[in-house]
Protein backbone atom coordinates (compact mmCIF):
# COMPACT_ATOMS: atom_id res chain seq x y z
CA UNK A 1 0.00 0.00 0.00
CA UNK A 2 1.19 3.51 -0.85
CA UNK A 3 0.28 6.38 1.46
CA UNK A 4 0.37 10.03 0.46
CA UNK A 5 -0.37 13.06 2.60
CA UNK A 6 -1.91 15.84 0.52
CA UNK A 7 -1.87 19.42 1.81
CA UNK A 8 -4.76 21.35 0.29
CA UNK A 9 -5.37 25.09 0.06
CA UNK A 10 -9.01 25.77 -0.74
CA UNK A 11 -11.31 28.68 -1.43
CA UNK A 12 -12.16 29.70 2.15
CA UNK A 13 -15.86 30.03 1.40
CA UNK A 14 -15.96 26.45 0.08
CA UNK A 15 -13.85 24.51 2.61
CA UNK A 16 -16.66 22.25 3.93
CA UNK A 17 -17.90 21.27 0.46
CA UNK A 18 -14.33 20.79 -0.83
CA UNK A 19 -13.60 18.52 2.15
CA UNK A 20 -16.72 16.44 1.49
CA UNK A 21 -15.99 16.09 -2.22
CA UNK A 22 -12.34 15.13 -1.61
CA UNK A 23 -13.39 12.61 1.06
CA UNK A 24 -15.74 10.95 -1.45
CA UNK A 25 -12.90 10.20 -3.89
CA UNK A 26 -11.90 6.54 -4.03
CA UNK A 27 -8.46 6.21 -2.45
CA UNK A 28 -8.93 9.09 -0.02
CA UNK A 29 -9.22 7.58 3.45
CA UNK A 30 -9.52 10.73 5.58
CA UNK A 31 -9.76 14.50 5.21
CA UNK A 32 -8.96 16.85 8.09
CA UNK A 33 -9.60 20.58 8.40
CA UNK A 34 -6.54 22.15 10.00
CA UNK A 35 -5.17 25.42 11.31
CA UNK A 36 -2.13 27.20 9.92
CA UNK A 37 -1.15 27.82 6.32
CA UNK A 38 -3.31 24.98 4.97
CA UNK A 39 -7.03 24.43 4.92
CA UNK A 40 -7.27 20.64 4.58
CA UNK A 41 -5.07 17.56 4.80
CA UNK A 42 -6.10 14.44 2.91
CA UNK A 43 -4.72 10.97 3.50
CA UNK A 44 -4.56 8.97 0.28
CA UNK A 45 -4.00 5.22 0.42
CA UNK A 46 -3.75 3.27 -2.83
CA UNK A 47 -2.44 -0.12 -3.91
CA UNK A 48 0.13 1.09 -6.43
CA UNK A 49 2.30 4.16 -6.79
CA UNK A 50 0.83 4.78 -10.26
CA UNK A 51 -2.65 5.07 -8.71
CA UNK A 52 -1.58 8.33 -7.07
CA UNK A 53 -1.52 9.92 -10.53
CA UNK A 54 -5.20 9.13 -10.90
CA UNK A 55 -6.32 10.14 -7.43
CA UNK A 56 -4.38 13.35 -6.87
CA UNK A 57 -3.93 15.29 -10.14
CA UNK A 58 -6.93 13.84 -11.94
CA UNK A 59 -9.44 13.92 -9.08
CA UNK A 60 -8.37 15.90 -5.97
CA UNK A 61 -6.90 18.80 -7.95
CA UNK A 62 -10.04 19.05 -10.08
CA UNK A 63 -12.48 19.45 -7.18
CA UNK A 64 -14.04 22.93 -7.53
CA UNK A 65 -12.62 25.15 -4.81
CA UNK A 66 -9.21 23.46 -4.57
CA UNK A 67 -6.67 26.25 -5.07
CA UNK A 68 -3.46 24.22 -4.75
CA UNK A 69 -2.06 20.98 -3.36
CA UNK A 70 1.28 19.73 -2.08
CA UNK A 71 1.80 15.98 -1.91
CA UNK A 72 4.13 14.06 0.41
CA UNK A 73 4.60 10.32 -0.13
CA UNK A 74 5.20 8.25 2.99
CA UNK A 75 8.15 5.85 2.96
CA UNK A 76 7.51 3.96 6.19
CA UNK A 77 4.93 3.86 8.98
CA UNK A 78 6.28 3.90 12.52
CA UNK A 79 2.93 3.71 14.25
CA UNK A 80 -0.01 1.40 13.69
CA UNK A 81 -2.26 3.26 16.13
CA UNK A 82 -4.83 4.22 13.49
CA UNK A 83 -4.99 0.68 12.06
CA UNK A 84 -5.40 -0.87 15.49
CA UNK A 85 -8.14 1.63 16.36
CA UNK A 86 -10.01 0.93 13.11
CA UNK A 87 -10.01 -2.82 13.67
CA UNK A 88 -11.13 -2.50 17.30
CA UNK A 89 -14.29 -0.51 16.55
CA UNK A 90 -17.32 -2.10 18.09
CA UNK A 91 -15.36 -4.59 20.15
CA UNK A 92 -15.64 -4.71 23.90
CA UNK A 93 -12.56 -4.87 26.12
CA UNK A 94 -11.27 -8.39 26.54
CA UNK A 95 -13.16 -9.76 23.53
From TrEMBL:
The lineage of its organism: Bacteria, Bacillati, Actinomycetota, Actinomycetes, Propionibacteriales. GO terms for cellular component: cytosol. GO terms for biological process: response to amino acid. InterPro entries: Dimeric_a/b-barrel (IPR011008), Tscrpt_reg_AsnC/Lrp_C (IPR019887). It comes from the Bacteria. GO terms for molecular function: sequence-specific DNA binding. Coiled coil: none annotated. This is AsnC-like helix-turn-helix protein. Gene3D superfamilies: 3.30.70.920. Residues 7-76 form the Transcription regulator AsnC/Lrp ligand binding domain.
